[in-house]
Amino acid sequence: EKGTYPHYMLKEIDEQPFVMRRIIQKYQDENGQLTIDPQIIQEVLNADRIYIIACGTSYHAGLVGKQLIEKWAKIPVEVHVASEFSYNMPLLSEKPLFIYISQSGETADSRAVLVQTNNLGYKAITITNVPGSTLSREADYTLLLHAGPEIAVASTKAYTAQIAVLAILAVATAKAKGIELDFDLVKELAIVANVMEMLCDAKEEMEKIAREYLAVTRNCFFIGRAVDYYVCLEGALKLKEISYIQAEGFAGGELKHGTIALIEDGTPVIALATQEHVNLSIRGNVKEVVARGANPCIISMRGLETEEDRFVIPAVHPMLTPLVSVVPLQLIAYYAALHRGCDVDKPRNLAKSVTVE
Ligand code: F6R
């Protein structure tokens, strides 16, 4: 039930800190260590390459998961949109392992690929919020999100839960391979949960940003580099699906190769700056769009901020920033849709689970 909340989406955004803490708890062993079923870890160790298959928001979580698995567990990962993969299968490695990411566990496009890879005899893990769902039943293994039912069509808490579970999988694999990591994921996810809480308390500020930048605009761009780019794709999807504003997520450096032609006087450009190694470059990209008249809204991370920034997120582990940087974007999308009189929980033309190919 949504209780005192006006919409499920807002309630589910607010639940994210609790979901983080629940995930830590559910994946902890009796010694407080994060663990994954040893059989699953064995499958990951046997693989020479991981293929993540998903759609929409779950695909965006997969992009972040690729970074985590490659950087921490040192296993190459490819991320594919399910509907493309099934009709245009890439050349596979010798020992592929498939990870299906699906909140509902019922998405037909993802299932179509699972049927194919099962027929080819490859092992599959499903990361889902719904125990007993089709994708869970038909895969060899399941990792649960423990996010609680997600009712709003726009996925929020499932996205952050998916990234958290992928982070746990990456760390557990690194540990099994004897790779030393210089941080404790339990602690880092606890920090993430606290920061999420602070961001959920920043609703007024997010409402102001939505009002200022998005009340009447026709379009909006989200730019970022490295992992911020993936969060920009998700921020743009949230905004377009519930507010019907044409929104695009772009890699900061790619903008000038064509898309910058769309920047006009007043075009809102939301820029994420949470990554130290690309901080100067993304700020350079902001200058490029400002020179063409864009109305910039920079959301940065504590330690990397400058005076021009509109909002600064408290610092978390640099690889875990998507878990927190997405929250302001979710809230901005929510308030933009609200101000524009849209049906936040049930946007037009969309269904919660897409069970047709
Ligand atoms: C966007 C959204 C969709 C889903 C996509 C996959 O907010 O909800 O893009 O992420 O349809 O759904 P699942 O994760 O259930 O496979």
UniProtKB/TrEMBL annotation:
It is found in: Cytoplasm. This is Glutamine--fructose-6-phosphate aminotransferase [isomerizing]. It comes from the Bacteria. It catalyses: D-fructose 6-phosphate + L-glutamine = D-glucosamine 6-phosphate + L-glutamate. Its EC number is 2.6.1.16. One of its GO terms (cellular component) is cytosol. Homodimer. Keywords: Aminotransferase, Cytoplasm, Glutamine amidotransferase, Repeat, Transferase. GO terms for biological process: carbohydrate metabolic process; fructose 6-phosphate metabolic process; protein N-linked glycosylation; UDP-N-acetylglucosamine metabolic process. It is an enzyme of class 2 (transferase). The chain holds residues 244 to 600 of 600 of the full protein. It comes from Parageobacillus caldoxylosilyticus NBRC 107762. The active site is at residue 352. Catalyzes the first step in hexosamine metabolism, converting fructose-6P into glucosamine-6P using glutamine as a nitrogen source. One of its GO terms (molecular function) is glutamine-fructose-6-phosphate transaminase (isomerizing) activity. Residues 40-179, 209-347 form the SIS domain.
